[in-house]
Amino acid sequence: MIMINFIIPLIIAAGVLAWVLRPGKSPTTARKVAILATAIPPVVVAIAAGKTWASDISNTCFIVGLGLIGAAILASAGFAFARKGGIAKGIGFGICIAVIVSIVEFGLLKWLRGV
């Protein structure tokens, strides 16, 4: 019950941020690349965590995914500081996708293996 009380507001916040940072009708190529470069690595790590049967490896994959999200947050702040708004927004949208994937991954790992 405590997990649901924590996860639902986190998913709602990530959804609102994704809506605010969503790409426009014709996003630039740099913004598309920023979204893909930010969203794909945590998805790959989540898939790797779901494919393993060992709990320790799943925990490590989950922590690596969180580290990738942290690195993306720092990169977004760096691009925002350098006044590259399109790239920073693209990274922010990718972070929202990565956070949602990490929340789902955590829930599945908790349910499957008791992480």
How is this structure best summarized?
With 115 residues, the protein is mostly helical. The protein has helices spanning 2-20, 29-51, 55-81, 85-113.
Q: Could you explain the architecture of this structure?
A:
This protein is an all-alpha fold and 115 residues long. It is 85% helix and 0% strand. It contains four helices and no strands. Helix 1 packs antiparallel against helix 4 (85-113). The protein is elongated, with a radius of gyration of 15 Å. The protein starts with a helix and ends with a helix.
Q: What brief labels describe this structure?
A:
115 residues; mainly alpha; 85% helix; elongated
Reconstruct the topology from this structure.
Elements: H1 2-20, H2 29-51, H3 55-81, H4 85-113
Helix pairs in contact: 1-4, 2-3, 2-4, 3-4
Structural class based on helices, strands and sheet pairing: mainly alpha
Low-confidence stretches: none
* Backbone shape: elongated
Write down the oligomeric state.
Answer: single chain
Separation, N- and C-terminal Cα atoms: 16 Å
Strand content: under 5%
Average pLDDT reading: 81
Number of helices: 4
